[in-house]
Specification:
Number of domains: 1
Shape: globular
Helix content: 40-55%
Strand content: 5-15%
Largest sheet: 3 strands, antiparallel
Distance between the termini: 56 Å
Strand order of the largest sheet: 2-4-8
Number of helices: 15
Number of strands: 8
Order of helices and strands: HHHHHHHHHEEEHEEHHHHEEEH
Length: 346
């Protein structure tokens, strides 16, 4: 009798207890979706396209893509955004260091200079990169090609300080179940949570961060993990913007005319990638908590470094942190496991 026939016989004889045994066995494969399923994407059954709500359309209409800045401004924007990016990896148990930006990020500035050098690349070279991005989406990719794609996305988003693209509006809300494991790359071993903790919810995104930051940072890195103790809901962009608008107005009618959708979007882009520690950001998080959400997508990095990296603000929903120093073998494994983004901003 085959293995599968044995299991069927056990189920017929012992019922539910046999099913439980099989579910606990190492031979049983579980999954949280179906082949081709993407986190946070809901598609129309007939057209196969994302179903945009009226709120999505309203905010997308209010978003005015910024004009392409000149090379000098792009370089300045890239340097400022690299600074914000590096700060996300500072240990949460310590206050951010007061060392100068250059002292803290010498290697990052060199990296930014390399990006700035690509700004003047000719149209043929840019078309080649875009073709590579399209052909390799969702496929295994070499570290060198991945870094090239990241640099291109940084120029197109960080260079103009406009992190929002069409894929931002097409991303639906999603839920990460209790027990889900989060992965964070840090410069320090961590035990505490800040009011806003940057993290990845997939190993694919974590591998992308390891590969990206090992190129930019000096000194040791740590793999920080923790689990959701309750379901963590992540809103779509329009829901986040509504919560920010609510926080900015603060129930005062005299502010309603001032805080147009365009100004709310500008404030959101200003907050993105930062510490999310000012009063308006805290108010936004409180509004989202009341709606049952616990994290938002890090729009600055989404589609640039990772697919849907997160900012976790409901720290009461997650358990304690565990830490392991990052080894050379860990880095090699991450770089051998790279998969190009499905929704890269370019």
């Amino acid at each position: 009798m085959s293995s599968s026939e044995d299991e069927i016989a056990r189920i017929l004889q012992h019922g539910a207890s046999a099913i439980d045994d099989i579910l606990r066995s190492e031979r049983f494969l579980t999954h949280y979706g179906v082949k081709g399923m993407k986190w946070g994407v809901r598609k129309d059954e007939e057209t196969g396209k994302y179903r945009m709500t009226s709120a999505d359309k309203k905010w997308k209409k209010a978003h005015k893509p910024k004009k392409e800045p000149n090379a000098k401004q792009i370089k300045k924007n890239l340097e400022a955004n690299e600074k914000k990016s590096q700060a996300k990896l500072e240990g949460s148990d310590e206050k951010p260091t007061k060392k100068s930006f250059v002292a803290r990020h010498k290697k990052a500035l060199i990296f930014t200079g390399a990006i700035a050098g690509l700004i003047a690349a000719n149209a043929t070279a840019e078309a080649k990169t875009v073709k590579s991005i399209k052909e390799l989406r969702g496929k295994s990719i070499s570290p060198e090609t991945f870094h090239k794609h990241v640099m291109h996305s940084k120029i197109k988003t960080w260079g103009s300080n406009d992190y929002i693209k069409d894929s931002s509006w097409e991303r639906d809300e999603f839920t990460l179940p209790a027990g889900h494991e989060f992965h964070r790359l840090s410069q320090k071993a961590e035990t505490e949570f800040r009011d806003a903790t940057y993290s990845t919810h997939s190993l694919e995104d974590y591998h992308r961060y390891v590969s990206q930051f090992r190129q930019e940072l000096l000194g040791p890195l740590h793999h920080v993990t923790f689990q959701a103790e309750q379901d963590i809901r992540v809103p779509k962009l329009s829901t986040t913007l509504e919560a920010l608008k609510e926080s900015l107005i603060g129930g005062k009618k005299e502010f309603e005319a001032w805080y147009t959708d365009e100004r709310v979007l500008a404030k959101y882009q200003e907050l993105s990638g930062g510490s999310w520690s000012d009063g308006h950001a805290m108010g936004m998080f409180d509004a989202l908590r009341k709606k049952g959400y616990g994290a938002i997508v890090d729009e600055m990095d989404a589609g640039v470094i990772g697919e849907t990296p997160l900012v976790i603000f409901a720290r009461e929903l997650v358990g304690k942190k565990s830490n392991e120093p990052l080894t050379k073998d860990d880095i090699n494994f991450a770089e051998a496991s790279l998969i190009e983004l499905e929704n890269r901003k370019y």
